[in-house]
Every structure is written in C-alpha cells, then in structure tokens.
User: Which sequence fits this backbone?
C-alpha cells in the first residue's frame, strides 16, 4: 500500500487526474512488486520497489540516505536496481555522466562495506562466492522461462517505458544507451543468480514509472491509460519462479468466482 500510494502521488503531481490517475496507478500496480506481495506475502518486494522508486524520484535527503542504508538488507535485488534508479534521477541534471561517477558508489557503499566487513571477519564472503558460482552454473535449468518471467514482472507498464526510451533515443542516443544498460544489464545478471526471474524483473519498476510520468507529461489521457489498465485487468498473468508458472486470476475469472 505504501508503494501504491507513492506511485499515485507521483502521477498526481505530474498532472494525472480523476479516472486517468486511477488507471495509471492500476497499470503500474499490476507489476511484480505488487503481484508478488499480494500473492506470495513477500512484502520485501514492495519495500525494495518503493526504495528504488524513491531513489529515482524522491527529494528528501534523509529519506534517500535511509533508503540506501536499509533497502539492500531487505533484499539484495535493491543493489541491482541502483544504477537504473540513479540514471533516471540524473536525467534531470545537466551532466548525468559526470555525476554518476560519485553517486553510484555513495549509494552502494553501506551494503558493500557491510559485506566487506563480514568477509574480513570470516563470516560469509567465501559462502557468497560459492553460492554465486553454483547459481550461475545451475541457471541453464530455468533460463527458458526467464522471458516469460520478465514479461510478467512488468506487463503493460512496459509499454510507456518503451515509448519514452524511444523518444530519448531520438533526442540523445548516448543517454538512452546509458539508461538501457543501467536498467537491463543488472537484470540479466540477476536472472543468472536467482531462479525467481519475475521478482528480479520487478526492479525495473522505476523505469516503468519514468515512462508513465513521461506519457502523462505528453498529455496522454483517459483513452491511453484506460486501455492499459483494462489490459492489466483482463490479460492473463502468472507468478514465474524457476520453471514453475502459477496462474493469477484475471478480473473476468474473479467476477465469475463471485457469481
């Protein structure tokens, strides 16, 4: 609910109103961080997504610091989403390339330093290396399901993001490539390390939010967002982890169950 409230506020502040605002929130809410939290009771996904979105769009310095310190210890996927969030944040600046050099280490420092200290104390570094190596070797067993997992992670919230990325490419191809690399390369690495590919794809939510805010700014209204929200409700979805695909009931199915 905290994540949905923040997404609602971002869309409202950008100018979405009435039914369009509801549809924007619904489209963004029909993504992995919310679906996983409501279907599997894994609330950490919601907190990580909220932290990444605040890192990308938030303004209060003390909350940004809190996000960077706390969220990596809620779920390590936060670390994989930091480059994407920071590039989105720096897009509003005059020179994102220059600022990225110090912002990224600063955001990762609390978690990385914690890991280094643990390793120096002999409490976990060797185990981490062993786990990562085994995970990569075993990833071939489920990679065939990864594309479906990534689709289920974003679903129709991916369309505004793709449109805005194309617009950015036309304006500045170098920055568009930077954003694409910061968003997708960590996800590809994460897919090799974790079999629940849908949850890994959920760290791309800030990119979807950026796309949604861009479309709102371009004047896309109820017709645009209404179709995306409707598709989010009626097109089948599923939880994807390892090679297991567990269907999520769509709105028509849920209405039939009520009859």
Assistant:
């Amino acid at each position: 609910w905290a994540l949905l409230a923040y997404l609602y506020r971002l869309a409202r502040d950008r100018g979405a109103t009435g039914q369009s605002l509801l549809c924007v929130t619904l489209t963004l809410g029909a993504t992995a961080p919310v679906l996983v939290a409501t279907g599997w009771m894994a609330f950490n996904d919601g907190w990580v997504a909220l932290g990444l979105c605040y890192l990308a769009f938030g303004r209060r310095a003390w909350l940004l610091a809190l996000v960077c310190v706390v969220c990596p210890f809620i779920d390590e996927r936060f670390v994989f989403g930091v480059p994407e969030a920071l590039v989105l944040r720096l897009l509003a600046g005059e020179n994102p390339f220059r600022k990225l050099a110090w912002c990224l280490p600063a955001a990762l420092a609390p978690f990385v330093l914690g890991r280094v200290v643990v390793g120096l104390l002999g409490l976990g570094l060797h185990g981490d290396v062993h786990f990562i190596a085994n995970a990569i070797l075993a990833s071939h067993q489920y990679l065939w399901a990864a594309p479906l997992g990534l689709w289920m992670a974003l679903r129709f919230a991916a369309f505004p993001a793709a449109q805005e990325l194309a617009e950015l490419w036309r304006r500045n191809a170098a920055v568009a490539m930077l954003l694409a690399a910061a968003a997708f390369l960590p996800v590809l690495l994460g897919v090799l390390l974790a079999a629940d590919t849908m949850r890994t794809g959920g760290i791309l939510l800030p990119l979807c939010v950026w796309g949604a805010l861009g479309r709102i700014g371009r004047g896309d209204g109820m017709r645009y967002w209404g179709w995306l929200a409707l598709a989010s409700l009626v097109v089948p979805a599923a939880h994807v982890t390892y090679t297991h695909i567990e269907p999520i009931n769509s709105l028509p199915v849920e209405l039939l169950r009520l009859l």
Observations:
- The radius of gyration is 18 Å.
- The mean pLDDT is 86.
- The beta strands are 237-241, 244-248.
